[in-house]
TrEMBL record:
InterPro entries: FAD-bd, FAD/NAD-bd_sf, Ubi_Hdrlase_CS, UbiH/COQ6, UbiH/COQ6_monooxygenase. The keyword RNA-binding does not apply. Keywords: FAD, Flavoprotein, Monooxygenase, Oxidoreductase. Residues 24-360 form the FAD-binding domain. It comes from Sphaerospermopsis kisseleviana CS-549. Belongs to the UbiH/COQ6 family. This is FAD-dependent hydroxylase. NCBIfam families: PRK07364.1, Ubi-OHases.
Length: 421
């Protein structure tokens, strides 16, 4: 591709700014689920958008990553107008069973516990089932240019503009934008280049993820089982498959991954339980380290962080991706409102509205997941007694149970307009 062709490719469909010199109102770096959700949420905003993604093939797709999609995330996708394309390829769950190892008192969360217009509490989606419909939707947005593969080389902030140097097929071009959004993951180069510090830690645990097919139906049920070594989740998928997320100390996790399939299944069955009969292992197992991270700030003048670029949490409860989807919906709402009011979307006063909205809510969830992991991942007798008393109360005190459930599925906190029904 010549530089002339590249320039033609990056000519925005239209520009909304009355200031000369901008190529795009908004440049999003990172074409994963969160970056795509942000672009899709701005379809009717009147803003010209460039979405840049470095990799043609997502590592998450290659590893068969899967996620819990909470009720609020589903409503956001519905508000965007893409949910009907996603729903046929994902699984629903109608109840969640929460338990502490072999303790017999199981907390059962069901749709009857809350006032909901759907029979489901949530959904489970493989990465491709979210990514592909979002990619197709964004490619049909007249105000979005989707560039992949492309690499951001450098960025330079000025008072009223961000210069973004990108490389495509070995050739470079400079793009000028009002606002740069980092949706480029937990190792965000954009965040690091901006000098934004983070706080947090790596856990003593790693997660093993794998697909299994049980002998009996998963019956649209998700499980969160807490063991001394860490949480163990079972997520239902289409085709009577399940995704397991097995948390264990690093060395134990490595040893489990090194077992033969037969040995691994024998260990897995002890954690999984007998409720679905014999298990069949499908495909490879993968392991990843768990960390908690919160950026010191989510915004600077003409820069905003979303998703894993801003925060990471323990996978217990399946909160991570859902927080990023809410970030995208919140930022879209803030900058679209500002644009409609004639304000500069890159001004720090505008972006601070997004930071005030999302930073505290994300911190609350990060703290909640950290507390769950630490309280349940041990066998200290006083802690065991307290947590089992908590489960007993949760099962028998409706207000406590409803609060916990709404927190888990995203119905606590401020709801973006896209998520309101």
């Amino acid at each position: 591709m010549s530089l002339t062709q590249l320039t033609q490719t990056l000519t925005p469909p239209h520009t909304t700014t009355d200031k000369p010199g901008y190529d795009y109102d908004l440049v999003i770096v990172g074409g994963g689920i969160v970056g795509l959700t942000l672009a899709a949420a701005l379809k009717n905003s009147g803003l010209s958008i460039l979405l840049i993604e470095a990799r043609v093939t997502s590592a998450a797709v290659a590893k068969g990553q899967a996620y819990a999609v909470h009720m609020l995330s589903a409503r956001i996708f519905q508000g965007i107008g893409i949910w009907d394309k996603i729903l046929p390829n994902i699984a629903k769950y109608r109840q969640v069973f929460l338990s502490d190892a072999d303790y017999p008192d199981v907390v059962k969360f069901q749709t009857a516990d809350i006032d909901t217009q759907t029979p489901e509490l949530g959904y489970v989606a493989e990465h491709f089932a979210l990514l592909e419909p979002l990619q197709e939707f964004v490619k049909n947005c007249a105000n979005v240019t989707y560039l992949c593969p492309a690499e951001v080389v450098t960025t330079q902030n000025e008072k009223d503009i961000v210069n973004v140097n990108i490389k495509v097929d070995g050739e470079q071009q400079q793009i000028k934008t009002k606002l740069l959004v980092a949706a480029d993951g937990s190792r965000s180069k954009i965040r690091e280049a901006a000098g934004i510090k983070t706080k947090g830690w790596k856990y003593w645990q790693s997660c093993i993820v794998a697909f299994v097919r049980p002998e009996k139906s998963h019956n649209y049920t998700a499980y969160e089982k807490f063991w001394q070594s860490g949480p163990f989740a079972i997520l239902p998928l289409p085709g009577n498959r399940c995704r397991i997320v097995w948390t264990a100390p690093h060395e134990e996790a490595k040893a489990l991954c090194a077992l033969s399939d037969e040995e691994f299944l024998a260990e897995l069955s002890q954690r999984y339980g007998k409720q679905m009969g014999k298990l069949e292992l499908l495909g490879d197992r993968f392991i990843f380290q768990v960390q908690l991270m919160q950026s010191d700030r989510y915004v600077l003048p003409r820069l905003a962080l979303v998703g894993d670029a801003a925060h990471n949490c323990h996978p217990v409860g399946g909160q991570g991706l859902n927080l990023g989807i809410r970030d995208a919906a919140a930022l879209a709402e803030v900058i679209q409102t500002a644009h409609q009011n004639g304000a500069d979307i890159g001004k720090i006063e505008i972006l601070k509205q997004y930071e005030r909205w999302r930073k505290k809510e994300n911190l609350a969830i990060l703290g909640f997941t950290d507390l769950l992991d630490r309280v349940f991942s041990n066998n200290i007798l006083p802690v065991v007694v307290i947590r089992r008393l908590g489960l007993w109360l949760m099962q028998r005190v409706p207000m406590l149970k409803i609060f916990a459930l709404k927190l888990m599925i995203g119905l606590k906190g401020r709801t973006p307009e896209l998520g309101k029904m």
